[in-house]
Write a structure and sequence with these properties.
Elements lengths: L1 H11 L14 E5 L5 E6 L4 E5 L2 E5 L4 E5 L2 E8 L2 E6 L2 E7 L2 E4 L4 E5 L4 E4 L4 E7 L5 E5 L7 E4 L7 H8 L6 H18 L1
Antiparallel strand pairs: 1-2, 1-14, 2-3, 3-4, 5-6, 6-7, 7-8, 8-9, 9-10, 10-11, 11-12, 12-13, 13-14
Length: 189
Amino acid sequence: MLGRSFLLLLVACQGESTSSKVPVRPAIEVRDPAGVVVARVVGGHPCRATIEGHELIVGGRPLVAQYGSARWTGQDAANGVTLAKNDQPVARIHAKQLFDAEGVPLLRVMDNGDVASGAGRIVRKIVRTPDGSLSIVPNEAGGDTLTVSGMPSTPDDIALAAMLTAHEASPEVRALAACHYLLHDETKG
């Protein structure tokens, strides 16, 4: 009798349950003018980000990732999220702004899609295209226009796109910043 019960239980577990399926999350991809993917992020637990060949698998909250021998963390506080490498502060995200380790602004994202440098000069403009993707247009000669697709429609989507493409920061900081916004939106529910 025990053998038959075990066999029935085993057979019952072989079918797929609709409640156990994990939803497939769309990838957010940044493409250069030639269509080459230069950055890719998939939200979820964990959040997975690949930027300029640097792949981070980010858990959280609080944020945590390992890249080579470096341990990256992100600690939430009243003044934003401090990103640290091996317990040494590297950057901080607060109010749609990115600061360096000393608190000097690197970039600021405005609600109209303007992205300002730390000095306050508009360096890029992020606009929504008719197909729902975002286009990041540089205000400087020689810069490439980037396209961001798969972006969720959230109050922070412009900031997420700006941080993901911020050449002012290292790929690891950009990956953590993108995952910060994606994981933050999930906790809002």
